[in-house]
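Friendly challenge for the regulars: who can give me the structure tokens for this chain first? No prize, just bragging rights.
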Amino acid sequence: MVDYLVLFGYFLVNYTVIVFFNTALVHCTHLYFNGEEPTIRKGLQFALSRMGAILSWSIFAATVGTYGDPVKHYNQQLADSLFMEK
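First reply, four minutes later:
Bragging rights claimed.
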């Protein structure tokens, strides 16, 4: 059980950081294409303003990642037992 909590925490932190900076980058791209000057500050401020949505998505993604890993492992074991030559 502790392994899954650690795995969940790992996924949660990683997804939060990745989505946060991707949000900032996409916002800066949006500013650029609208003729405005994109800055790191504007991108990070926008990402901070969307932190609730970012955390919600990260929790969802971490949950799928945590519970998808054992399912993938089980399915691989099942496939190996069914299709491996003996």
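The longest helix spans residues 51-83. Residues 2-83 form one domain. Your move, everyone else.
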